[in-house]
Each structure stands twice: as structure tokens, then as C-alpha cells.
Amino acid sequence: KSRRSGQVLEFSGVVDRLLADDDDGSRHQRFIVRGSDGMTVLISHNIDLAPRVDALRLGDSIVIRGEYEWNDRGGLIHWTHHDPRGLHEAGWIRHEGREYQ
Q1: Sign of the alpha-carbon dihedral angle for 19, 1, 5, 72
Q2: What is the dihedral of CA 76, 74, 38, 65, to 10 degrees?
Q3: Distances in Å between the alpha carbon of 90 and those of 19, 58, 79?
Q4: Other CB atoms within 10 Å distance of the CB of residue 10
Q5: How much of the chain exceeds pLDDT 90, in percent?
Q6: CA pair distance 43, 88, nearest whole angstrom
Q7: Is the C-alpha dihedral spanning 68, 3, 5, 71 positive or negative?
Q8: Is the pLDDT assigned to residue 76 strictly greater than 90?
Q9: More confident call, 12 vs 74
Q10: Cβ–Cβ < 8 Å for 20, 69
């Protein structure tokens, strides 16, 4: 609501849509999560730095920690992984008892 970007946050919800990977530059697994308030957020998970969430299915519950970037379509969360240089706060994805980072 405040349109603030660059905030590290935790977000939980249900997988609403699975999208094709973004292979332009670093590869990213992409999917949309719907929170309990109905808000949707695009998740952009770097699969060059962290394992792919292979078992992800529509309707699955998921918890994400990453950096939020606002846009007029609900925003996106990235940095859902460790930083190999140790300069950025690490993020993760928790799905079915497993953590991906």
C-alpha cells in the first residue's frame, strides 16, 4: 500500500499461478503468490544461486523471505536466496517442510 521498495520481508500465501522461467541473464523461477488479503505478488527466485522449487503446484502454501519491489501490478519479491558475496541479507523459500536458499 505504501509503494515502498527495497524492504526485506516475509510473505506467506498460496501459489496462484506458475509462470515460465525467465532465462534472460541469471535464470529465475517465476510464480505468483496470493496472500490472505487477496494481494498477489510475483516471486522471482534465482535458480542459478538456489535450488529450484520443483514440487511447486497451484494451491500450495508457501512462505517467502526476500526483497520487495513495488510495481502497479502488486510488486515482486526477489533475493529469495543467499548472497554468495555476503553483502545482502539472505532470503529463502519454505515449501512443504523444505527451505530453498
Answers
A1: positive
A2: 20
A3: 24, 26, 7
A4: 12
A5: 71
A6: 18
A7: positive
A8: yes
A9: 12
A10: no
User: pLDDT tens digit string along 34-49?
Assistant: 999 888 999 999 999 9
* Whether residue 1 has pLDDT greater than 70: no
Residue 16 grid cell: 496462484
Strands 76-78, 40-46: pairing is parallel
Give the number of other Cβ atoms within 10 Å of residue 55's Cβ. Answer: 9
d(CA 64, CA 19): 17
Q: What does the block give as the cell for 97?
A: 517442510
Residue 50: how many other CB atoms lie within 10 Å: 19
pLDDT of residue 3: 63
Q: Which cell numbers hold the place of 60?
A: 500450495
Do residues 92 and 43 make contact, with C-beta atoms less than 8 angstroms apart? no
User: Which burial class, exposed, middle or buried, applies to 20 when counting CB atoms under 10 A from its CB (0-12, 13-18, 19+)?
Assistant: exposed
**Single-letter amino acid, residue 48:** D
For the chain, the average pLDDT equals 91
